[in-house]
Fold each of these.
Amino acid sequence: MKIGVIGTGNMGGAIMRGYGRNASANGDEIIAFSRTRSKLEKVCEDAGAVPADSMSELIKDSDVVLLAMEPKNIRDNISNIAKDFTEDKLLISVAAGIDINFFEDNIGAGTMVVRAMPNMPAKVGEGMSSLSRNMKVTDRAFTKAIDIFEGVGKAEEVDESLIDAVGGVSGSSPAYTYMYIEALAQCAVKNGMEYDQAVRFAAQAVLGAAKMVLASDESPDDLRKAVCTEGGSTIEGYKKLVEMGFTEDIMEGMQATVNRTIEMAKGK
């Protein structure tokens, strides 16, 4: 199949590079278009992709069209996208705030549409992507969509009604995790460590903890209890975080993210 990618910035470029490692083995070819030709050619070289001369050319030549443009650019260009689109093509969008109905209304009710929400760790092959599809998407086409996003991490089907929750729990949460790592590192610096070393220790601890959650049958809270032995140092830090409202603060921060996502979808 020919996989066309429109937009080769952070997310588009990450997906191209990630899936590019397996594209030829799967018998696929990646083609891409971006308004910035120099960036386009560089990403295509890295991903083993072919640059297209225009968006129209890419859409006509592709079996799958992945829109990795800014939401505003998608809205501004939707009529140009629609004129070259046919119902045998699969459209995948990673744009926040643009729902499946928008594409059905502007391209056609028969369009196969997948709405994807990856997150920034896709750049290092550790992304988490949700994929939601309309009723027109065949199982074969959806399997191809899953394959593309598994090239940059993990991917699961999620009903579109949950997309706002996904935005909070995985789309935006890396930003809060970076804040957590920075706070750990800064405290270590106060206690004598060099900053760069402190960041490495904090980041590796977070990475290891996350892998344990994914590998274990126990809940995150059960794993926390295993570390917080009575009379030890860890439980003292845990008690202080509970006292300061750590869990509630994180939940409120995520809810603010979800609320803003809902507003954006309404054009606010």
Amino acid sequence: MNEMMGLVGKKVGMTQLFQDDGTVIPVTIVQITPNTVVQIKNAATKDGYSAIQFGLGTKKERLVTKAQAGHAKAANTPAPEFLAEIRVDEATTAKYAKGSTLTVTDIFKQGELVDVTGISKGRGFQGVMKRHHFKGFERGHGCHEYSRHGGSIGTRLTPGMTMAGIKMPGQMGNIQVTSQNLLVAKIDAERGLLFLRGGLPGAPGSVVTVRHRVKIVKKAKK
């Protein structure tokens, strides 16, 4: 497919698949229940860009705000549990209508490459050894208190300051991460499962966006 489409799903967890020759492929399972097209944006609207907004699941009625209810009513659908937007071109937006549903087999096929975007696991405030994989100082008898420090962060007399971008302790994880060019190893259309080779960002149960790859992988020179 040439269009850069995608769907929203939930990360289930990791497992492995056995090929006919006996090799094992580590895969992550993403469950993609039917996505509802809640809104279609294009350059002619007040948004000024082309995109399709998908809804996943159904939110409990007592948790739906008036704004969310009105937004879903415009598409004649129940208020979704999660909303996600995927940027596409105007030619792609013309193929879909508000209120329609899309399944995993409508967008993806086995053997193609996809990009997956999600929120990574939050690790809290971490030091340089865990956050940036620093080696640390020697653990000898003379080392005191500084075995896990990052070392010098200054630049002597000129310019006499800490430069921007120095690797230091800080918040780790809990950011948006995209894993690119993951192979679709298998599709279970009946249960809406997508088996993707390798690991994905986020914890099991977290929401991820799966879309057609953006970057083209160049073949290695022989």
Amino acid sequence: MTDTTYNVHTIDTIEALSRCPVFCVDRFNWGGAYRPVTTGRLGFLPDSGFVLEMTCREADPCRTYLHDGDPVYLDSAMEAFFCFAPEEETPCYLNFEMNANGAMLACYGRSRRNRTPFPEELRQGLLCRADVLDDHWSIRLTLPLTLVQSLYPAFTPEDGSRFTCNFYKIKESEGLTHFASFAPIPVPEPDFHLPEYFARAQIQGA
């Protein structure tokens, strides 16, 4: 785990997300000349779940894939990974990968391989919306507590609760290939599936 931290503010409406702290996805751990500016905010709605917004200053992003479950990381994509039991030796973590069409690859598991897509009964309330403008695009992800607590029954979301996360900007295919993260990942080859390098996060009261 890195020393990078993010304070997740408790909010009472989705509109209040605009008052949450901004994080920057600006660690280009494996170099590269193409470095689009990417930022985001994460908030917590009690009795509902988490709300994430991310924005990338990128015009006309690559957006080939249209359907949930597609390999959107080959397009221009923004991603969020979460672990709500980081104290476990080999913890389960969640990955949400989204392109500018709003197509989302969402899975869980304990390693990069053998990821499991969320079954339909857990996807209720898991929503992704994308907006594309002239010089930037954004996504909004809602992560319901029902999904989180089904996989992490010991997690109690309240003031002071802790978990880990990391946020990414990626295009894995040829042409403007890039890999950026919020928390640094000190390994020689691109790999976002390393929960040991996720940032610390803590829920704070309103």
Amino acid sequence: MNKILDSLKLNLLHTGHVQLDDTWDYDNVISPFSRIYLITDGNAKIYHSYEEVNLKAGYLYLVPSFTYSRYKCETYLTQYYVHFIEEIGNGLSIYDIKDFIYETKASEFDVQCFKRLVELQPGMSLKNVDVKKYDNQDSIEFIKKNNRLQPATKLLETQGLLRLLCSRFIKNEKINKTVVKSGFSDVLNYIKEHLHEELLVSDLAKNYNLSADHFSRVFQQKFGIRPSKYIQSVRIERSETLLITTNNTMAEIADKTGWNTVSYYTRMFKKIHGKTPGQFRKERLND
């Protein structure tokens, strides 16, 4: 496991300190990079990994890459932020081999790490705080270009600070290590990012030059579940989050999670939960 962590690459995209207001209100955000926030004042809420998290001053927060998330600030919030792309050889993610917490109390050393990052990288602050305006389609090329222009000492210190901040959230080693050996790790991210679209196993298989049947068998060997069943489970889970954390109609939720019709979505949801999405929402909101 230590050898795998030795190959961990953390590449900086943005860092800065910003004050936000009630315009910081975004839904259906799925980014190909991770975020760490250090809240310095105010409060807000974020939703990701099927949890609601209240942002509080004096705490660090992690939002992993490729997770559905929402952001809402009703008054104001000031925070340090860092956005980065993580990789552990062969396109794998640190989230494939480690379990993470998403909130931890910040130490004075954490504060100094953020201040130092901003000092080291003054040109890496966001020009637009709209989280849907910087999905970084060309982030890999941006990172390569930026790294070429960085002095070696500055680049090493930046990556060291990112490692320190990221390590604050690692909980333990995942029990299921099959993903680490899999060349299919990228397909999980693809599914999560394109969940609202039609996802056919035959199309996924073409990316690996495999037949649909062969792809399904390999996928099940690696992850313990058939790809069609995995897609269905992720769609149900994301719809649960939308039911609890938004006022979206059933039609909007069905559209955002890739179900063809509301009736089909309702039927599949009831098959799994024994209740309709509307009943699920009502019960959870009345808890």
